[in-house]
Amino acid sequence: GLKTILLCNPLVGSVSQLPPMSRPRLFPSIGLSVTPTSIDVTVAGDDLISPYAVKNLSSESFHVDAGGFFSLWAMTSSLPRLCSLESGKMVYVQGKFYCMNYSPFSVLCYEVTGNRWIKIQAPMRRFLRSPSLLESKGRLILVAAVEKSKLNVPKSLRLWSLQQDNATWVEIERMPQP
């Protein structure tokens, strides 16, 4: 059914409810960007339109600024086909929201200003276990266990940084070291 999104500012003790989205979503992935002058929210997931158990992935965005102006929820561009989004979590880095796609592993990127979704190939996607995204110093980082044996036991934990071209990953750390 319909979900309520609350914005909480623990510093001043305020809680604000956003207007309802135009469509209910099952286990949505939610992204939030907060600056001193605005808040942007993007929500993506199965919008439950199809009565035939077919995934119908879509996304909506919402904007509010310090002057009190806010937009109503607006549908964004279509998500790439065959997506299986991570529930609940998006990471915001330099004007883009990122979330994990699990079928197979890849990263979905929503460019706010261009209003478009793109799919980014994950490094070593056949061998990744429990991947997670995070932002560090203005960069998108992918952290995952890497499994390269028939025993299904992770051999290492690795960190990759997405480069400016939004297509290339560079390994920045590995534990244990080879």
Automatic annotation (TrEMBL):
Question: Boundaries of each KIB1-4 beta-propeller domain copy?
Answer: 4-175
Q: Sorted alphabetically, which SUPFAM superfamilies does this protein's record hold?
A: Kelch motif
Q: What is this protein called?
A: AT1G30950-like protein
* Protein's organism: Neslia paniculata
